[in-house]
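Handoff note, outgoing to incoming analyst
You'll be picking up this chain. Sequence as last confirmed:
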Amino acid sequence: MLTRLDGLAKPEKMFEMSEPPSRPIPRVRFLAAALLTGLFLAWAISANADVTRPNTDPFQSLDGLPDPTQSGIEEHLSWALGVIDGEPVDVAEVEDRFAQSFLDQIPADSFATATAPVLVGAPYEFLGFAIADGGIFAEVALLDAAGVPSILTLAVDPTTPDKLAALVIAPVEPPLGPLALWEFSLHVAAGLTLLATAAALWFSGRARSSAVVALAGGLWLGQLLELAQGSILYSVGLIAGPVAAGVLALAVVSGPDGRVAGRLNWLAAGFVSAAVFSSLLVLTAVDTSVLTLPDQFLGFAPDRSRANAFARASGWVVSAAAATVAVAVLVRQFRADWTRDRGLVAATLGGTSAAVLVAIPAVSAGYDPGAFDFSQSSLFSIAAIVAGLGLAGSALWDRYDLGEVAEELAAENQELHGELAAQLLEVQASRARIVTAGEAARRQIERDLHDGAQQRLLAVVLALRVGRDRFAKEDPELKSYFDSVADDLGIAVAELRELARGLHPAILDEGIAAAAESLAESSSIPVTVTASKVDRCAIGVEQTAYFVISEALTNAVRHSNASHIAVDLETARNSLSIVISDDGSGGAALRDGSGLQGLEDRTLALGGTWSLSSPPGKGTAIKVTIPCE
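Most recent structure output, in case you need it:
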């Protein structure tokens, strides 16, 4: 709302900025959650340091033992495991199983003797195996009776794949614990990042989204239960990973209110649910108890071929879910109001980047089911960190972004500028009307003087001359008196005529250029008039220009001690430009009530510009531009 004061608009109230929505801090719950999280992490750190079972992740095992019916290398593995566990060695079988290059180094009848030192550590506990190079190369992790880990390495002859070219068993020290230190650190960082993101969402007024992300963060830390020795806790740790990833994906595709809306988002949510189910389904075909891991209770009827099929299918379902989530997030961004939802950009970047990171191991599992791992890929933890930072950035941006306030201020300022511009136009129009009315009034006075008082005075002069000729012909003294009165009246008529011409110079009927020449001729200082391309303008504009030139010449003659004056006239871009300059002493200034001040006001009233430059000793220059219309 605006009030007028001295013709200008003034804001009646100051702008008010509304506080972003916030929620009270539930201190007791936050402190309890922080305490429980700290205690859990302390246990996890201790467990990861104390667990002595070897890390089986490098072997990517799907079940505990090789299946001789699956491939030639696995058949060789089954035989080799039996040998190192103490089964008798048949010389003929050795000759039939090994390539000649191997037998040249260790004859078949010496094979039993060569393997005898290995049997001292029997029986061995099988930990897992890995096959590489298209089935040519294999490694098996073993643990002897004394708890010393070893690696059994086999390789077949590329030219005769049914023959073994190498068999070596050597003690090693594989990393202990289900999680390497860097894997453990990534899991912890991802969980804490999600919990911090949940807090940021809570303080931004997004309670539902905060609850979903907090659940994802808790489940992410819950993966550390894989460190537990008990079957139930260990199984919960295995399950927590896929479920945590699914819950986080739902948080990414949901809106700021935490609700899933829109067909595409619901489709993404469906794919995410299918991905979680398929990831858990793989565990049903895996028996972890044949390794040095606790028995997970989802496993039943372990079968290698079924586990391979489930792992491959799960990889492609997870890949499809990641792609759908990325598309849903991008579509939501492009459909959003970019001026109002600037904070959504952070969530979009985080969500799409996380989807790409998830898709990398998922696609790998789709092509190679042997890439299945009991623990979730470390790239998933990096994806969780990226997605959490995106959601937190979006929440903090929306809370502290002053974009909406700035837009409101800009709109208010725009309105004020519009009001002020309208008022200035009204002031200029009213000033122009005043000038026009003044000119009209002067023209009317001029006509009144010419048609009234001037004519009456002329009539009186004629009457006096007639009276002189009739009554004072014989009286010289009376005739002299009549002549004196008639002369005085003639002078009064001339002065009145000159006054009338001052109100509207008749020379302006010929244009401002001719009027400037007329003023120059009457000046006592030489004046040069330059008038190129001077078109006719409105009468009020030419009158103002005339009086500007007249006043400038008068001031120069009276005060400047100039030897020459230059007057330049030009019309360009529908404006009349006037420059009056002299080579005098300078020092001229605008003073209240002065003629120059009045002419400046009159120029500005017509929407023109006025400039006076008069440095001492360097002459004076007056520059005036007036719109012709």
